[in-house]
Amino acid sequence: MNVKIVYFSKTGHSKKIAEAVGEALSVDVLNIEDKPSLFAVDLLIIVGGIYNGLSAPEVLQFGEKLKPSMTQRAAIITSSAFRKDSQDRLSLTLKSNYIEVMGECIVRGSFAIISMGSPNRKDFDVAIQFTSDIIADIERASPNASGSEA
Q1: Whole-angstrom distance, CA of residue 46 vs CA of residue 95
Q2: How far apart are CA 76 and CA 60, in angstroms?
Q3: Beta-ladder partners of 7
Q4: How confident is the model at residue 145, as a pLDDT?
Q5: Residue 3's beta-bridge partner residues?
Q6: For 97-120, what is each residue's pLDDT tens digit?
Q7: How far apart are the first and last CA of the chain?
Q8: For the chain, what is the HEC assignment?
């Protein structure tokens, strides 16, 4: 299965999460700021943070440009100091572009003294398990999707 991870990170937290997931699952990790070229990706993991209660504009703009020829499915990993903010607008944007959203995982980030030390190994493990579970679900639903790149 062709899986890619893209991220945008102002603070470095989302980058750390993306790299931890990519390393654990042997998946390419790409920075949204580098304007990655995507084509026929079976699952795109989008990692980004919440800033002042909102998704980063860079992540939303990236989502607006995605087309089904680029990816069939996406999943979102969100870094949030309060672990309550989600990227609903990104999810709606993807769905309006006919990209199936497989779910969202919210992991702890940090802001000032709130949640200092996050993201940490426990947070990475949550994101890794979330991604691994989605890949397994897709492979179960599409027997011919398994066995290639993940």
Answers
A1: 14
A2: 12
A3: 31, 47
A4: 54
A5: 43
A6: 999 999 999 886 644 444 444 578
A7: 5
A8: CCEEEEECCCCCHHHHHHHHHHHHHCCEEEEHHHCCCCCCECEEEEEEEEECCEECHHHHHHHHHCCCCCECEEEEEEEECCCCCCCHHHHHHHHHCCCEEEEEEEEECCECCECCCCCCHHHHHHHHHHHHHHHHHHHHHCHHHCCCCC
Q: For residue 122, what are its two tokens?
A: 């426990």
pTM of the predicted model over 0.85? yes
Q: How far is residue 81's CA from residue 84's CA, in Å, rounded to a whole number?
A: 8
Report the distance separating Cα 1 and Cα 147, nearest Å: 7
* Cβ-proximal residues to 24 (8 Å cutoff; 6+ apart), any chain: 124, 128, 132
Structure tokens at 18: 């993306």
Domains of the chain: 3-145 (3.40.50.360)
